[in-house]
Amino acid sequence: MNDQPDTAVVEMLVELACRAPSVHNSQPWRWTYSARGLDLYTDSSRLLGVIDPTERQMVLSCGAALDHLDKAAAALRWTTEIDLLPTPGAPDHLAHVRFVHDAHPRSHEFDLLAAINCRHSDRRAFGPVPSNRILTRYLGQAHYGTETTVLSAESKQTLAKASTLSASVRKYDATYQAEIRWWAGHSFRSGGIPPEALTSRAEASRVQVGRQFPEPHRVARTVTTEPVEDESTVVLLGTAADERLDWLQCGRAMSAFLLAATADGLATCPLTHLTEQSGSRHLVESLAPRNGLAQVLIRIGTPMIGSPPPRTPRHAVASVLSAPARTPNRRRS
């Protein structure tokens, strides 16, 4: 245990991990720290039962938090050794993490740490990606076994069709509408998307591939008239199979991409509604160059001029982490 970080460091790492995006800011994770290491579990009390009945997006969200933890630990000179789905018969136990104090972070790791603190989902229209640096870095590569595909501009017509199809299927689904109104547009300490993080109906109409949220009573103010239409690039993350491990790994890949894009100064917004319904999911999968299962899409582009939407609130670390009392005489990073 001498080589393990003390509780204060783990609290810091978990706080950074919990900055990860989650479906409707549900934050469906819980952590336990002991002499064996740090364990990540799903929190089924925060499952969106109508939107995510298979728990796919919940596991994706936890995978993103796991990658955030890994990136934060590296910047604080800790290497992580991660076992995925370590307990047979316990699908809620997603990962066991052991720490080794031997990392030698370089400037890129510190860039990613900064990205954790400033990344947010921006639902506004974007300008075009100014260079192909990040696209070249990720095009056709597999991260955590997840294939990343940069979709063509022409693909947006199909994505818009898929988005419309998804919305039409759920337009008169009272249970879905009730769930999304509960999680989006309110300011709850328990999570959810606050109204300031949503866009007005007029702004939302510029992003044809975005999810249709309830009209918020108040929205973030933006002082700009450009871009008139969304010029973002859309990236598809897909997997060969559709099992819990695939979802977990895809969440890690999503986090890696979001943080790299943020470090490059780009705005980002994950899109999950396009893969929630079978019809829209098949349309999205038709755009992939290889056979595979679409898990999540990400819009990236130049951020809009003006004040960005506020960061969505996160739970206090004490409410998601069980850990021993702080021991100040143990090694810190």
Automatic annotation (TrEMBL):
Residues 222-278 form the Nitroreductase domain. It comes from Rhodococcoides yunnanense. It comes from the Bacteria. It holds the Pfam family Nitroreductase. Gene3D superfamilies: NADH Oxidase (3.40.109.10). InterPro entries: Nitroreductase, Nitroreductase-like, Nitroreductase/BluB. SUPFAM superfamilies: FMN-dependent nitroreductase-like. Signal peptide: none annotated. This is Nitroreductase family protein.
